[in-house]
Amino acid sequence: MPICLIVDDSSVVRKVARRIVEKFGYEVAEAADGTDALDYVNSHPMPEAILLDWNMPQMQGIDFLESLRKMPNGKDPKVVFCTTENDLAKISRALWAGADEYIMKPFDEDILATKFATVGLRSAA
After folding, report:
1. How far apart are CA 124 and CA 65, in angstroms?
2. Is residue 124 part of a domain?
3. What span, in angstroms and rounded, lies between the C-alpha atoms of 110 and 115?
4. Is the distance from CB of 74 to CB of 68 less than 8 angstroms?
5. Which residue spans traverse the membrane (predicted)?
6. Total structural domains in the chain?
């Protein structure tokens, strides 16, 4: 079963995203910030998909993404930024750093299914 890592400091957002992504047929792992996410990718098989928040304590999502993309196999996961940041400069920075897609919170199952399909991830939705 493919793995999706959900990285967000909000347990509510992680719970909502988990329910949606599990419907898509993914096993879900969670991280509360970029540091936890780096710990995860360093100690587990690389996930196929990562939903990533921007603003988090300890390590921002963009910093995690930049570190991830430098790792062996770090270019493999499809990364979808999922955030309230709507500044064009930040969106451009995320895409330049290696994000595959960008969605705004709040999101729903249809939006996530569309973005997964756009980046080539399978979805049962």
Report:
1. 26
2. no
3. 9
4. yes
5. none
6. 1
